[in-house]
Design goal:
Blueprint: H1 3-6, E1 12-16, H2 27-40, E2 44-48, H3 50-59, E3 64-67, E4 69-71, E5 77-79, H4 83-92, E6 96-100, H5 112-122, E7 127-130, H6 134-143, E8 147-149, H7 169-178, E9 183-186, H8 192-200, E10 205-208, H9 210-213, H10 215-230
Helix pairs in contact: 2-3, 3-4
């Protein structure tokens, strides 16, 4: 197992990726969130875009998982769409790369499986396969992913019906039982209890993002909870 991946075991990866309209959507703020996460005991930082990757890399001593958001032709988000993005991510200072390994066709004409195979052949870097289903996780493991993350469960056109209030514990557990590579629990980890449950279900480590680095979303959850009790 890759040394960087091994260092993530039973750890918390903090995703520092503010929304486009978020007041904290600057590289300086992203780096500040990363420094705070490091101080709190995070094992790695996951962040999007070359400016944020470079800023975080300069600010912390933790491993950095980098990715770049693009779009599929139908408008859904595509994580690290093209080969040039891999080069940019690595040049910016990321230690690991996250990419979409779903069967959907990228703008470059390759589906996620074909793209992953080419990336695996061209780049000597730990690759984290972001997937949405059990079958996709199995395939990514078979193709040589260093880890598989449940990032996209509930965030693809064919899984959007899944419960949006909690992590996909079933997927985490099923993959952890079926593959030999680390399974990273990501998506809707809203509380320490969610993180704990994910590890109990077999997650190698956990990614938390919005619950730590998106104050607007955190505030809205509190507001909605109050309103639901008084309405």
């Amino acid at each position: 197992m890759n040394e960087l991946i091994a260092g993530l075991r039973n750890g918390l990866i903090v995703s520092c990726q503010p929304d486009n309209e978020d007041p904290f959507n600057t590289s300086a703020f992203v780096a500040a969130f990363a420094r705070a996460a490091e101080k709190g005991g995070a094992s790695a930082i996951r962040t999007e875009g070359t400016a944020n990757i470079a800023s975080v890399r300069a600010a912390i001593g933790l491993p950095v998982i980098g990715f770049i958001n693009g779009q599929f032709p139908n408008g859904w988000v595509c994580i690290t769409p093209d080969f040039k993005d891999i080069e940019l991510i690595l040049h910016a200072g990321a230690d690991m790369v996250a990419l979409d390994v779903t069967p959907r066709k990228r703008p470059n004409g390759l589906d996620g499986i074909e793209f992953f195979e080419e990336v695996r052949n061209q780049f000597d870097v730990p690759l984290i396969a972001d997937i949405a289903t059990f079958e996709e996780g199995i395939r990514a493991a078979e193709m040589g992913a260093d880890a598989v993350a449940t990032t996209l469960s509930g965030y693809t056109e064919y899984t959007q019906q899944r419960n949006q209030d909690e992590p996909d514990f079933s997927l985490i557990e099923e993959l952890a039982r079926a593959v030999k590579i680390p399974v990273i629990a990501q998506g809707r980890i809203w509380s320490p209890q969610h993180a704990n449950e994910a590890v109990k279900r077999g997650a190698y480590c956990v990614v938390a993002g919005s619950a730590i680095t998106r104050p607007s979303m955190i505030t809205k959850r509190f507001v909605d909870a109050i309103v639901s009790k008084v309405s």
